Amino acid sequence: MAASTTPRPKPSESSSPARGPVEAALADVPVGVPLGVAYSGGADSTALLLAAARLRPGQVQALHVHHGLQAAADDFERHCAQVCECLGVPIHVERVDARHAPGDSPEDAARRARYEALARVAQAHGLRTVLLGQHADDQVETLLLALSRGAGLPGLAGMAPSFERDGVTFLRPLLRLPGPVLREWLRTQGQGWIEDPSNADTGLTRNRIRHGLMPALEAAFPAFRDTFARSARHAAQAQRLLHALAQDDLSAMQGDPDIAALQRLPRERQANLLRHWLAAGHGVACSSAQLEELLDQVQACRTRGHGIRIKVASGRVEREGPRLAWHPAI
Ligand SMILES: Nc1ncnc2c1ncn2[C@@H]1O[C@H](COP(=O)(O)OP(=O)(O)OP(=O)(O)O)[C@@H](O)[C@H]1O
Fold this sequence. Notes:
One of its GO terms (molecular function) is tRNA(Ile)-lysidine synthase activity. The chain is an alpha/beta fold.
């Protein structure tokens, strides 16, 4: 870990510094409400914290999640506490056990545990809004990861600029700023940050994208951050339409999917409805192969005695009279 902290004057003492790119990116962040900043100690959330503390003196609180996964986690926490002291910003530390279940991705498990912890600690301190530090390069990496998995529209929509979780609004105000701009700005401010050693681990796909693909994209398509982000916004817009259509189709069935009513819809619209029913209603993602099999079964179900029983994720979808029903694994 290379942590370097330059003591800085408290925001209230600084002589109104010229607005840089990071402060400008925070222009739309709500005024007059207490703000949480999810602060890992890394470059991006350090830039976010510094700019937020300057723009909204007295309104910002830092939220740090201690993952307990890396031996260096205690050093990260100490570094964050020191920076917050210099900035005159209160810090709340939440400890999580981010160990992953067998078969689960360690990164996904850590991310889930982190958002749960951030929402919990924000609520405990009366913070309804929390800022996250993801930037334009993170968005490109997310899109490339989605493409590499063969993701559909929800994945290609990338990270949303805002989302709600457990009564807390999370905002990503830096989503249009390139990562190198953030780091350069931090250098000009003389503010240090933590370089997380796991960022150099090329065993992680995200790091292979960062170190191998991003420089190639920069050379081939200099505007790739903007154009990829535009594609993600198009995908997000189309996904919202599909979501609304699925809600309408499902509510017209007044309950679980009705097999005869499904059969009257085009196959893609059946697929859209079933994916939504499983994901929004039951928190289940089905694979393309499982969905195709379910659609074939729905299509073939023309007699009273025709049964349907298909494994989906860890449970199964079955026919119950005229409708489909979801049964989680016991
Ligand atoms: N341990 C943590 N505690 C609090 N917030 C965190 C933590 N880790 C990540 N975050 C938040 O989630 C955002 C995205 O996480 P990501 O893993 O991409 O960041 P990072 O590389 O750990 O740190 P940074 O984005 O600050 O350089 C961070 O910018 C930060 O706002």
